[in-house]
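We treat protein structure as text, and this decision shapes the records that our systems exchange. The tokens are whole numbers drawn from a learned vocabulary of local backbone shapes. One such record is reproduced below, unchanged from the form in which we store it:
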Amino acid sequence: MQANKSQIGELVRTVSHFAEANRQGQARMFDAVRLGVLQLAVEHGPLRAGEVAERLDALPSSITRHIRALAEAELVSTEPDPADRRAVLLVATDTGRTELRQFLDVGEQVFGAVIAEWPADDVVTLTRLLTRLTQDWARYGAEQQQAARKRNRPFGWSQG
């Protein structure tokens, strides 16, 4: 049986409410883009700044500022790109790797404290469902958003 309009609406409101609460909490504690730059350097580096900007859907000038701040903190370094001497590659330092690991550990501790009273089965179920939602959103979300824009009038007030 498929979800009805009311159930879908409740899911949308719940996911949106959680995402906003999470965003606000993060904004008070750290710069999410800077974290994203460091995480990409650690997990996928070395990378060009343009690739980082593309993956984070951010302006290149913003990424440059974040790279500079991370380099000043000695969390990343830049090195010449052997394929194009005019470009540089972003590389995580050992300090950056350690800092990211510690940062993520603290995040897991906070999250763990929030769900401390949940049964393990609930955690496993929510993880499975959120993974499925994320995968389906990646697969169909942009296409469905584009189709909705074609079917409906634009909401000018919602544009940046």
Notes: The chain has a mean pLDDT of 90. The longest strand covers residues 84-92.
